[in-house]
Amino acid sequence: MGGQILEYEAKTILRRGQSQGRMENLVQNIQALMEAMNWTAEQAMDILKVPKEKRGEIYEKL
Q1: Cβ contact 27:58 at 8 Å
Q2: I need a labelling partner for 20 at 20 to 30 A (CA). Which of 30, 40, 55, 59 fits?
């Protein structure tokens, strides 16, 4: 039983880390497009098809 709980917790931590890594990568891609193409953050997010509901969180990280 304890092993199952630890496995569940490990999977939860892994998913959280993967999600954070994807967000960091997306922010880096947006910044690269903004710099290389002289685009606004909104233009870069449009091209990358970032959902509107995630944009607030991304603006905070830019």
Answers
A1: yes
A2: 40
10-residue mean pLDDT series, the chain (62 residues): 79 90 96 98 98 96 94
Write down the pTM of the prediction: 0.80
Q: Residue 42 and residue 34: Cα distance in Å, rounded?
A: 9
DSSP code string of 7-51: HHHHHHHHHHHHHHHHHHHHHHHHHHHHHHH---HHHHHHHTT--
Residue at token pair 């892994």: 14
Q: Tokens standing for 43?
A: 């233009």
Here the tokens at position 62 are 């830019």
